[in-house]
Design a protein that fits this description.
Blueprint lengths: L9 H12 L4 H8 L3 H13 L3 E4 L5 E4 L1 H17 L3 H26 E4 L2 E4 L5 H28 L4 H15 L4 H4 L5 H16 L7
Antiparallel strand pairs: 1-2, 3-4
Helix pairs in contact: 1-3, 1-4, 1-9, 5-6, 5-9, 6-7, 7-9
Length: about 210
């Protein structure tokens, strides 16, 4: 394993982030990468000129990858991984991720629905005690997930951003912004899903379900 995290070039970071989060606004790409919007926009324009991304204008517009962009990202991110000999470490981290993943999905289901005598119903978040119990479990989950995230970030620097984004989502949720558990585009579940996508793309594994 490298003694210090390997940095990803800015253009590849922007391209790969767009691959992982999907069609997005400039602001969302900036938030996900942790880079200033003007820097992200400059990279996106260059990537568009190269035919790797495209922009849809208008109120509901945004940036997305072209087919060529998806291919280029897969090739470049795999080469980036192998250039620093990190495939074994990331594969091991992915195995640990897969152990945790079902637990997070169960927590998200428990957050969104509740079992009652009449069957399952949507959680309307009127029961503070119930919600706080789920948030406490999510905080405990986050503590255990930290080992996976720390190991990834020590190998490839771009993974450090996931640690910050997950921590931010959890902090916001515990402060009362309940949509940051599952319903916000920057929610804990959304960021975790993007981490899953990142690991799959990095290792060249096809996604089967969520």
């Amino acid at each position: 394993m490298p003694t210090s995290p390997h940095p990803t070039s800015t253009d590849l970071l922007v391209l790969h982030t767009l691959r992982c989060i999907g069609f997005s606004s400039l602001a969302r790409v900036s938030e996900a990468t942790g880079l200033p919007e003007d820097e992200v926009e400059s990279e996106l324009i260059d990537l568009a000129v190269a035919g790797l991304v495209t922009r849809l204008r208008g109120e509901f517009g945004g940036w997305g990858l072209t087919d060529a962009g998806r291919t280029a990202d897969g090739e470049r991110i795999a080469a980036d991984l192998d250039a620093v000999g990190a495939r074994e470490a990331v594969t091991a981290a992915y195995d640990d991720f897969l152990v945790l993943n079902p637990e997070l999905l169960n927590l998200c289901t428990a957050w969104q629905t509740r079992a009652t005598e009449g069957g399952m119903r949507l959680n309307d978040h009127s029961d503070l005690f119930y919600d706080m119990g789920i948030l406490d479990q999510l905080a405990e989950f986050d503590h255990r997930a930290d080992a996976v995230l720390t190991g990834l970030a020590a190998t490839l620097g771009r993974f450090l951003r996931y640690r910050a984004r997950l921590a931010e989502a959890l902090t916001r949720a515990r402060a009362g912004a309940l949509d940051y558990v599952t319903d916000n585009m920057s929610s804990y579940h959304s960021v975790w899903f993007q981490l899953h996508e990142d690991l799959l793309v990095t290792l060249g594994i096809p996604r089967h379900g969520s």
